[in-house]
Amino acid sequence: MKELTQKPQNIVLVGDAFVSPDTMEQAVQQSALCCGRITKLMWGGSDKQEFTSRQLKLERNGPEAVPYADGLDEVIGEAEVLLVHFNPVPCALIEKAPNLKVILTCRGGMEHIDLAAASERNIPVLNVIRNAEPVADFALGMMLDLTRDIALSHRKMREGVWMKSFYNSDHLMTLSSHTVALAGIGNVGSALARRLLALGVPVIAYDAYTSPEKLEKAGKDPKRGTLTVLKTNDGKDYYIDSEGNYWRSTINLENTTAYDFAESPEMLKKSGAAFGAFQNMLSDYPAETLHEVIPHFHDTPARFEQLMQAVRENKAGRLKNVAAELEFAKARETDCGLLMNLLEEGKLPLKVTHNDTKMSNVLIDNATGDAVCVIDLDTVMPGLAAFDFGDSIRAGASTGAEDETDLTKVHFSVPLFKAYTEGFLGEAGKALTETEIRTLPDGAKLMTFEVGIRFLADYLNGDVYFKTKYPQHNLDRARNQFHLVAEMEAKRDETQAVVDAYL
Asked: What is the pTM of this model?
């Protein structure tokens, strides 16, 4: 590395909306680097909101997620030193840099750099962890100040006032008697967590980018809060048995329960929060790269056409029994394409969706009643947020089971809809567009209607898909779902007001 300080180097600087190329040039000239030719480039424009969007994609998906700066291809071949802030440095760029001796980044994180590719070329990657420790000290100091009223007491003493009581006198005032919640456990969050844990302060933490290493560093259990897949002896995430079947094994999350149905509005709210967090954490994942496990799974127009095909074929000879149900379905044919049309028009974004958002796919902590994590990930596919929301509402906001034949017991509950929405949008709200939020009631209706026409089609086909307990089981299920659809339509103004409150 002595060569970098003794021989003039060909340096390429890539700034951005947060750290400008001029600032980088000034820093390089004041450093120990022996500067030769300096080439300055800009990654993107000066719009900081747009910069933040690209930043999030890089942090969540790595250096391949976003293109690097325009013009970098033309100068990287002669570069000996590459200094970036957030500009991505993927493997493809490193391969184009035969003379590169070092990669520098003026930030703590290195998610935007392909470290494996750099290591393979023996190119050092140096970063700067700027002020994490001082900020952690400051945050801890502010906590002590607030719990013990230090600054307030000092100010009042200087004014000649001896305070007998404080705004927080009715609450416990020792720091260790409180639980501290950390939103983000990067360098600052981890440093603060270490200080708090050393003082005996309970700490809980959430980080959308959390790795097991970060969780451990913050004193948290990395094996809880997400499913941890156990690897086979040969390092794979799955095992293939002698018959060609695929198997996965995950760590059991103890002291949790999967409930078939929400036992209270609060439990339904917690379920909504779990699936909302799922949406939030995967909001920047490139959904189009996911395999469509079940093609056209929530393509309601396609599902309607399957019903019409079942009518035409009448395989089980049951068409004569479903006149009223068919009339109900046909009257809503034009509704089927609402969400898919918005997707095609670019008004709704493609998202990562769970596609089986029933209550039993959320593990609930036995002690706290909080949602621990979402399970049953075999149907994770590209789709719309309204699909997951709507499927949850279909079952969760109904007062009866989906095969209840006494329809006087089956109603669409707006209070239950509101409870789930509060949990879901409380976690996912910022990750959803205005159109996504506005169309959530449409998702509830369409998912209920879609399941209804699937039940009806299966009844006409002779019960070949859904498991049934008696010959009319699928028809009863269809009638049940159509009854809910009708009530959703009647209460649409109420449900729209619920979601609009989050805009």
From this structure: 0.57
Residue 84: phi, psi to the nearest 5?
-130, 165
Residues 286, 153: one domain?
no
Q: How many domains does the chain have?
A: 3
Same domain, 122 and 138: no
Name the residue range of residue 165's domain: 132-222
Q: What is the CATH number of the domain that holds 260?
A: 3.90.1200.10
Neighbours of 8 (CB within 10 A): 11
Contact 240, 339 (CB under 8 A): no
d(CA 68, CA 351): 24
Q: What is the pLDDT of residues 31-88, one digit of tens each?
A: 888 899 999 999 998 888 888 889 888 888 889 999 999 999 999 999 999 999 999 9
Dihedral class, residue 364 (left if φ above 0, else alpha if ψ from -120 to 50, else beta): beta
Last residue of a domain, one of 198, 222, 246: 222
Give the Cα separation of 210 and 189 in Å (integer). Answer: 11
Orientation angle between helical segments 300-313 and 440-461, nearest 10 degrees? 20
